[in-house]
Amino acid sequence: MASKLLLRQFYKVYRYSRWFRSHFTFMGHTLLIFLFVSAAFGVDTQATTSYQAFTFLLMLLILAFLNSFLIKLNISAKRHLPKYFTVGEQSHYRIKIRNKSKKYQNITIYEELQTYKITSSQINHWFGLYLLPWHKRVISFNLWRKFMAYKRGAEINKVQLLLLEEKKDESEVQVEFTPIRRGILEFKGFYIAIPDILGLYQKNIFIPLKQSCLILPRRFPVAPLKLEGNRKHQSGGVSLASSVGDSSEFLSLRDYRKGDPLNSVNWKSFARHGKLIVKEYQDEYFVRRALLLDTFLDESSNVLFESAVSVAASICMTQRQNDALLDLMFVGDKAHCFTSGRGIDHMPHIQEVLACVQPSSDSFETLQDAIMQHLPICSSLVCVLMSWDKKRQELVNKFQINNIPYAVFLIHDGSLKISEIENKPENFYLIDHNNLADDLGAV
What we know:
The chain is α/β, with parallel strands linked by helices.
């Protein structure tokens, strides 16, 4: 109850401070400071004349506020967004504005993103506050504001437009921003702030323009893993990877034998040679690698999970091969398996999946059962884990028993050393979430 009341007060402070920042210019804020100072010193009108400055400054603010009601704007706008952005990379997009009213100068354009209601448990979960001592578990306004910005999804810079031309003229502005989380980024619209004639107060006009785009996880260079896996028989052959059906790979032509199905007859060869000739097929064998993503947080914070997703995305981009399949496996609401390679799907779709994956509340046995069923057709495995407990060690030992080449990427918070890890396999990589680029580059 107390945390809900505290968060409600945080939201009120945030909303009021944002209103003041967006409605007053720099000169307006300076005037407000002098207004409050003159009000404090001008209480005793007999001892000082500060009340006169207070009256004059107050009249200026009232005139600026009333002048804002005379500002009328009629525009149409269109936002041009790319299909993808990437977390942490400086990006930009364009907004085209057609002004249907009179000319305005020195206006400011800033975006409005979708906001979400947040709870104290979400903040605790994200920052891992349950790992801190009890006297440090109090949620501060600074933590709340950071998490609020994270939920919004991006830091978008304001754009200054010196001149908005008169009727029927189109202006184009370029907006720069940096995504701070992966997933779907939702735009509600944007504000156009037009200052009054005194340059103290701004009228904010909201232009609704709903759009969304996808933010992909960060990716880093990773050297291709040298896992000597054997080519495995794939039920359905190449058709599994490039078409629909259960046909196998074409091998050669041969004479018809009694019992051969008629749908395998090559009728063009029959017309040419006058005898029945059939197509002969063979079963298809090729490399198939599984990538396991650990989505079970246990006692880990969400920061480790985001790092694990980035590592999985990096491995996906490095391990793509034209003659191999890559199976991304994880557990969300249920066990999922997404396959790419050999025409069955494209790698950008795997990146889209990783952009939206969320931590799972299911048990680790769900992922274990799914991978054991998938094991007979796998040539090798790559595991991205956030813990090295007994359950995960037992799963890795089963890979060794089945003679499946595998590699393990263990994400940690910087407190582990490779010499302290027990029962680690041969291809074991310790990845510090604070140094993803360096640790992955050293693989």
